[in-house]
Amino acid sequence: MTIVAEMKEIVQAKFPNQTLYPDKTKDLLAYCDKNIELFVEAYNLDLDEGSHRHTKMAISHHYYGNRRQTKNIKLETEIWIHQTLVDILSKNKTNLEKYHLENSLKLWIDVFEEKTTHEDSQSYLEKLTINRASFSEFESGTIDQVKIEKILEAANGITPSLANAFHYRVDVLDQETKDAMYPYMHSFYPDASNKTKKQFAADPTKYSQKEWREKGICFNTQFEAPLVLAYSIPCRVDGTPEHWRPNEFETSRDATLVGVGLNMWNTICAVEEMGLNSCCLRAFNENALKQIKISTDEEMPHDWAWFPYVFLCIGKGVRPKGDHRKYKPRGIVNTLKIETTV
Ligand SMILES: Cc1cc2nc3c(=O)[nH]c(=O)nc-3n(C[C@H](O)[C@H](O)[C@H](O)COP(=O)(O)O)c2cc1C
To answer: Which residues have CB under 6 Å of ligand 1?
Structure first.
């Protein structure tokens, strides 16, 4: 029997045919279906690593803002479900492992009971790294000018600045530009056919959003955020393969793109510090770039011009991305075996 099935049996035995709110049997079983697998995965990964980071990420996924998100289940019942699960997982474990699981459970209970003691021991950056979510929808309206200035200062921090040879630029898009580009800013789910992809690129207004969605279009609604930063790099105007020769640009394209990523994280940190959220956007249709014209006072090598490469969409987040923490980062540190060949 799977652990989800086992938990559902236990829940059903304790809360049989309960139809009155709260703690309806139906809601409790739905809670098990939705959550147990994730909890178990996080507990097990933490046991393997001797850490609590997966549990903390699971908490941030299910309890955005570190608050309980369900009113359908009583606090004591939710704690009982968690305790029962940990009791099952603790079977046949060593005392050390049991102790580790109990400590992971305590993190959940602290959040449920709104005691955030474990959070106090984390630095600001640690909290940010563990809890930050990408958002696909933002509140409409504007961001106040003081915050925008601070965000732009962070984006202008350019660390590392590649000895002043960093070949990317950051620009705020105005509403007219966003409106012109929006129809082309979307990407495809794996089930979108080539015909759909061609049709969409040629005329994104041909069908309604709902119809396009059914055909496999993934709408990048984050592009409607109040503040969108375009990260641009030089590209050849004729669209031929992009070789950056040393006589054209001092720093390679690869190094420049690493710089872009570092700049984005710095900017994201500034955004989060002010209580705002963000989302990166890279999967857009090339036709989006045909809706705009970019000029600069800077001298560029012949046949090269600036084109946006990736966007950072910023605002007060309303809806976290569906896949946020669904695929929790497994360990990527010290997983490769690196040996000398001589
Ligand atoms: C560089 C970069 C580009 C991305 N581009 C897109 C995009 O074009 N469309 C989209 O829906 N999500 C995009 N994402 C979001 C990811 O696909 C994914 O949904 C998100 O990173 C999951 O949230 P998390 O990073 O908070 O776990 C991008 C993320 C990154 C880091």
So the answer is: 133-134, 187, 220, 280-283, 310, 321, 323-325
